[in-house]
Amino acid sequence: MTQLHLTGSKFNVALTTFFIAYSIFEFPANLFIQVVRPSRWLPGLMDSECALSCLCY
Fold first, then answer.
1. For residue 51, what are the CA distances in angstroms to 6, 40, 54?
2. How many domains are there within the chain?
3. Has residue 2 got a pLDDT over 90?
């Protein structure tokens, strides 16, 4: 991945980290979306990501 400047094992670590986080959070999110409508869930995710970005900046 030349654009990301990831070579060798750095790309593998990044990919593994993403996959593990995705696997952990996929199941609870699918359960939660059965309770909350997608029209509420998706904007809520975007709002929480925006708030987190603002707090970290």
1. 29, 16, 5
2. 1
3. no
